[in-house]
Amino acid sequence: MRFRHPDGSTVHLAYCTNVHPAETLDGVLAQLRDHCEPVRKRLGRDRLGIGLWLARDAAHALVTDPAALRGLRTELDRRGLEVVTLNGFPYEGFGAEEVKYRVYKPDWADPERLEHTTSLARLLAGLLPDDVTDGTISTLPLAWRTAYDDTRADKARAALVTLAERLDALQELTGRSIRIGLEPEPGCVVETTHDALAPLTAIGHDRIGVCVDTCHLATSFEDPHTALDALTDARVPVVKSQLSAALHAEHPADPAVREALAAFAEPRFLHQTRTTTLAGGLHGTDDLDEALADGGPLPDTAPWRAHFHVPLHAAPAAPLTSTLPVLEAALTRLVGGPHPLTRHLEVETYTWQALPPELRPRARAQLTDGIAAELTLARDLLTDLGLKELP
User: How many CB atoms lie within 10 A of CB 96?
Assistant: First the structure.
């Protein structure tokens, strides 16, 4: 979906296909047929943007076979779909029964991460619509915080400098500009947007910036305006933003609240949980069940937020809610001003099948309806900010 900003530039809205995990090229093609095109039709659109997730095997198949890449581009066009952004964070296995810490491997100190991201950049240059010259890719925020020492930090920094050089060369070759955004996430080396400032200013290249995920922003209790102002002041580009909402519990000491939260503790993904207090600052656990354990480490005198991407249009039932207001505040700052801070927005609710059983879509059509409803909400927020939806 495309929107005209009041300054005349085009803002793109997509939804991320990591909600339909597939490891192979055949699986990606099936996603387009079974999910992406039906969402487009449900919205009544001639064209729909998707934030494509290409796992290692799918990316390898495409980068080693130009005919396969042309075939994917043809299939996108045939189904009324377009790609201006990729999700390069998960490397493989995102559809596994247990993902947890595995999603952070390989990290930016491992050569595989650089080679995979380079491949994604080359592929995106070939997938961009004919009238679009700029593409973006979100990626791992350097590494999970443990086992990350100065040696690995040096390797990660060198890898990102090499990537920036490769992206410069790619633009010279293709005329397409591809930028990469580190995606701050709780528990990682770059947990917050503030954590991104030092490593990115040290790299000092405008092709390497930040992907602002509004669920992660909210989980870490960052104020959107403060965070985005700091990035702007440091001249760190907001490459893209993922529109998502976290789980919010206002009164975590209440047994009914804890019981409601326990329904969201599940074995597939990590659900980092955070609270903030005036005396001690930010406190956190790596997962929701750890926070809920008897005698757990989190203070329960202030609200908790959990890294669980809840559907944008459907907040959890009381006594829980979502951090949709944080998303709205961030979006106002991102695209509501005289010029957009970013032109690539991506709805990323990948946890539909991790929701409590009674909230999960039971049929493909229900998932289609849910994704379409999320995109409709995002569209309405954009038009309320003065952007005009384009055909």
Answer: 13
**How many C-beta atoms surround the C-beta of residue 177 within 10 A?**
17
Tell me the β-bridge partners of 16. Answer: 51
Assign residue 25 a region (left: φ > 0; alpha: ψ between -120 and 50; beta: otherwise): alpha
- The rounded distance, in Å, linking the Cα atoms of 199 and 210 is 11
DSSP character at residue 131 = T
Backbone torsions φ then ψ of 211, nearest 5 degrees: -105, 115
Mean pLDDT of 52-57: 98
pTM of the model: 0.97
Do 17 and 352 form a contact (C-beta atoms < 8 A)?
Answer: no
Structure tokens at 61: 């198949």
Residue 363 DSSP symbol: S
DSSP string, 270-338: ---EEEEETTTEEEEESSHHHHHSTT-SS-SSS-EEEEEEE-TT-PPPTTEEE-HHHHHHHHHHHHSSS
pLDDT tens across 334-363, in order? 999 999 999 999 999 999 999 999 999 999
First CA to last CA across the chain, in angstroms? 8
pLDDT of residue 277: 87
* Amino acid identity for residue 165 in this structure: E
Give the CB-side neighbour count of residue 171, counting CA atoms within 13 A. 13
What are the distances in angstroms from CA 284 to CA 215, 221, 364? 15, 11, 35
- Banded model confidence at residue 278, pLDDT cuts 50, 70, 90: confident
The verdict on whether omega for the bond into residue 237 sits within 30 degrees of 0, i.e. cis, is: no
Q: Angle 213-114-155 (CA atoms, 0-180°, nearest 5)?
A: 95
DSSP string, 146-167: TT--HHHHHHHHHHHHHHHHHH
Q: What residues contact 267, with CB distance under 8 A and at least 6 apart? A: 97, 98
* Tokens matching residue 115: 């080679």
100 CB burial (10 A radius; 0-12, 13-18, 19+): middle
Please name the amino acid found at residue 270.
Answer: L
